[in-house]
Amino acid sequence: MVGDTANLTRELGLRLLRKLREIRQFEERIIPLYPTDVMVTPVHLHIGQEAVPVGVCDHLRPKDLLFFGHRTHGPALAKGLDMNRLMAELFGRTTGCANSFGGSMHLVDPDNGMLGSSALVGGGIALGVGAALAAKLEKRDQFCVSWFGDGAVDSGAFWESLNFAALKAVPVMFVCEDNGLSNVMEKKDHMFADITEVAGHFMEVWRADGTDVHSVWSAAGQALRHIRESGKPAFLWCRTKRWMKHQGVETDDLECNPVDREKDCPIKKLEKAMKARNLASDKELDEITQGIEAQLNAALEFAKKSPFPTEDLLMTEV
Ligand SMILES: Cc1ncc(C[n+]2csc(CCOP(=O)(O)OP(=O)(O)O)c2C)c(N)n1
Ligand SMILES: [Mg+2]
User: Which of 121, 186, 215, 309 could connect to 209 by a Cys-Cys bridge, CB 3.0–4.6 Å?
Assistant: First the structure.
């Protein structure tokens, strides 16, 4: 497992913390709103798992492509989606990133390298491979990431994608965000093999603590360097913890998924590591939180004031 905060710098720590907090606070803000039906979409929350998108996406540039699934808010915000446009999309307004047609599971933001997310489990895996193959053939300087959960490794597309990427040396990064659950099913009940052992037959594998952003960041950096230097694919596995129910805004209560909100919290871990090294003061950390709260107030106002789609838009973008 990769992870050593000894070389954590102030600049990096603050940057990662800001993104972790953006995702956490965004989702905490929508929790009380969701039952009031102002949001016209189901949501799959990323709370507790923020270290994975933040640790990975910190290495990516807007032109790098990310293909992902139904648990979208974390990766989308980490990759650079504007909070206003995400909030508006959840509210079903035309100013949303998918013009109100997508909802939480179908975010799109081409300017930030997100050509679309898929509600089909495993639906984005092969797309990332295809994009990476195109980038290779056209000699484009561009990373392509196939992002999926442990449940998606059951899909045929997963195996085909690993095989093809290894066989043809496709420079794609597979990111498995393993929260040990596929909806309410434990991994041991749907997956026969060890994911990383299997992936290791096809390509180099990096293992990270998915509750620790610095661990994910270090592993992702190494995996991407490997891709750049070798031209081959890489597999990043991040074991993380789902705090919330699979879908909706309630806390998870599965016996097989015990969560310790102190020890399993990527934000608390990073803040502790930074304070222990005198990299940030309580005041600075509080300022980050307050700054994001102000951004969220603005995003909510933006969403509420934005128009709903009208009937004449029904047949556009189909
Ligand atoms: C092809 C397909 N099969 C089943 C579903 C229903 N489904 C939605 S999410 C989910 C669990 C996915 O688990 P995982 O990939 O581990 O992602 P997580 O929800 O844990 O982030 C399932 C089975 C679906 N959306 N698509
Ligand atoms: Mg899962």
Answer: 215
pLDDT tens, position by position, 224-240: 999 999 999 999 999 99
318 pLDDT band (50/70/90 cuts)?
confident
Give, in order, the Cα–Cα distances in Å from 194 to each of 134, 151, 198, 199, 200: 30, 13, 6, 9, 10
Handedness of CA 290, 296, 297, 299 (dihedral sign): positive
pTM beyond 0.85: yes
Q: Which residues lie below 8 Å from residue 188, measured CB to CB, with a gap of 6+?
A: none
- 241 CA distance to ligand 2 middle (Å): 9
Q: List the structure tokens of 294.
A: 């102000």
Q: Find the domain containing 122 and state its range.
A: 5-308
> E-assigned strands of 107-245?
144-149, 172-178, 181-182, 185-186, 204-209, 234-239
Tokens at 317, concatenated = 């973008």
Q: Is any atom of ligand 1 closer than 6 Å to the C-beta of 161?
A: no
- Atom index in ligand 1 nearest the CA of residue 49 equals 21
Ligand 1 within 6 A of CB of 53: no
- Take residue 59 and report the two structure tokens written for it: 């290495």
List, for residues 1-27, the tens digit of each pLDDT value. Answer: 666 677 899 999 999 999 999 999 999
Please indicate, yes or no, if residue 317 is contained in any of the structural domains.
no
Residue 314 located in a structural domain: no
30, 47, 73, 175 from 237: Cα distances, Å:
29, 18, 19, 6
pLDDT of residue 296: 98
pLDDT in tens, 105-154: 999 999 999 999 999 999 999 999 999 999 999 999 999 999 999 999 99
Total domains in the fold of the chain: 1
